Amino acid sequence: MRLTRHVAFDVPSTLDRSTAVAFVRDAARSLSHAEFLTSLQQDEGGLVAAELPVNAALFGQQKLRFRSRLEATPAGARLEGLELDDVPGWARVSGEARVVPLPSGSRLDYRFDIEIHLKLPEPERWGGRALVKMIEVTADQVLRRVCERFPDAVRAAARAYEATVAA
């Protein structure tokens, strides 16, 4: 099963262009307020990794890992989601963050594609089909909530970073 969502949002910022570019290239900093992610890390080689906790009613708390390669671009950064083979599933996060200079700071433009991949057995009976449908609905709800909360998390991280830069 594969579920996808696209999320796009802009964050106005008082950061100058070069400081804003450094912010969007630092995934650990720019996603530091994303409480819907756990174990967020970015290594020196540009690998960004985290886990997306999912509470599936019948299976309890699961964590879907994602790994993305962060590449610097002239205007910011691009994430290339990497394929995993985790069971029962994994996530792929791809997208781009661009910095647009403004007279009084910058605008941070984010565009992401988020996928959840779940490995489920083929249902053979009515009860199995109902279980698969319930898992699909739960995963879709998690993905929707992540996309809804993503903009606020990045805005909060940008505000916190602006406060440290201004101090």
Give the arrangement of secondary structure elements.
Blueprint: E1 2-13, H1 17-25, H2 27-30, E2 38-42, E3 47-56, E4 60-73, E5 76-81, E6 89-102, E7 105-118, H3 126-166
Antiparallel strand pairs: 1-7, 2-3, 3-4, 4-5, 5-6, 6-7
Give a verbal description of the structure.
The chain has 167 residues and is of the alpha+beta class. Helix content is 32%, strand content 45%. The protein has helices spanning 17-25, 27-30, 126-166, and strands at 2-13, 38-42, 47-56, 60-73, 76-81, 89-102, 105-118. β2 (38-42) and β3 form a beta hairpin. The longest helix is centred in the C-terminal third of the chain and has 41 residues, at 126-166.
* Class computed from helices, strands and strand pairing: alpha+beta
Total strands: 7
Average per-residue pLDDT, rounded, comes to 87
What gyration radius follows from the Cα positions, in whole Å? 18 Å
Low-confidence stretches: none
Helical content (DSSP H or I, runs of 4+):
25-40%
Order of the strands making up the biggest sheet: 1-7-6-5-4-3-2
Distance between the termini: 48 Å
Bulk shape = elongated
Number of helices: 3
Element string (H = helix, E = strand): EHHEEEEEEH
* Beta strand %: 35-45%
Describe the sheet with the most strands.
7 strands, antiparallel
